[in-house]
Amino acid sequence: MKLDGTHQRSITRTADGAGARILDQRELPWVVKWVELRSVHDAEVAIREMWTRGAPLIGATAAYGLAMALAEDGSDAALDAAYTLLLESRPTAVNLKWALDQIAAAVRPLPTVDRAAAAFARADAICDEDVALNQAIGAHGLALFRTLHAKHPDRPLNILTHCNAGWLATVDYGTATAPIYLAHDAGIPVHVWVDETRPRNQGALLTAFELAGHGVPHTVIADNAGGHLMMTGQVDAVIVGTDRVTANGDVCNKIGTYLKALAAKDNGVPFYVALPYTTFDASTATGADVPIEERSGEEVTHVAGEGGRIRVTASNAANPAFDVTPARLVTGYLTERGVVASV
Ligand code: MRU
């Protein structure tokens, strides 16, 4: 999407084709820094340490990581080792396993010398497909937004979102943000309430950066503000992304999503989850079966970018990074095939 005045994807191959180029998202919005991943170990570190993040982008990065591993050694042993290394880099987003399985299935029947080229080609295709999926999600979401805006045509459509499910979390356009960008471009007045999304502040740092870059009116709010805004009629719909939707429709997404869904339900605000098929995990029965990433307590006790510690006591900090929103709280799933109502 728009960055420095040009349209760019969040991940591409390096100029020589042998690596992957990503933004170091730990530096945003202060510094726009592109980095080149040159090995499977680079890719694993970039995912684990969240230089790159967001379910679809994690998958795309892992796909290139596996291709880079095969360029060094195309054997079955190297494939299996790199697959496991990358799979364990982050536990919750199912797109990671999906992408690794895509690459492994594409290369396993091939002679070892042909595997790297085939893996890079498949990784490129995964990226192209992600862009197309998000465009389709956006088109269906645009129709939904038109309907929602028609209920109050005299004022902007107020959307609340949590975390970053934007182009920085995907290859382009984003999932939850795709309809926002399309609606804005189509002349529908959209205003976005951006949850800051403690503790890593993906909303305040990344979603706000994206929306500002695209000229979409938005307001960053403390995570605790959403319930009040919904109760006072200032939110027309909530739309979030997801790291995994399980067979029963439960939605695993950034910690705090569940509370937004509860507040939305209590106030009759529609709650939509945007996802491509690559985030649907039919093999996991319910949200209770999804591994919830536990990240460092330092993310709670320290604020990124300012170097300041916000708790000076010796208290422990816990940091579950995701939660599960039960399917019963979801109004609809916004997919590349259209809006699927929750049962
Ligand atoms: O920990 P993160 O920043 O990777 O979490 C990202 C999210 O929770 C997103 O909402 C999700 O991955 C969907 S991205 C389209």
UniProtKB/TrEMBL annotation:
One of its GO terms (molecular function) is isomerase activity. The active site is at residue 243. It catalyses: 5-(methylsulfanyl)-alpha-D-ribose 1-phosphate = 5-(methylsulfanyl)-D-ribulose 1-phosphate. The keyword Translocase does not apply. It is an enzyme of class 5 (isomerase). Pfam families: IF-2B. Belongs to the EIF-2B alpha/beta/delta subunits family. MtnA subfamily. This is Methylthioribose-1-phosphate isomerase. It comes from Sphingomonas glacialis. The lineage of its organism: Bacteria, Pseudomonadati, Pseudomonadota, Alphaproteobacteria, Sphingomonadales.
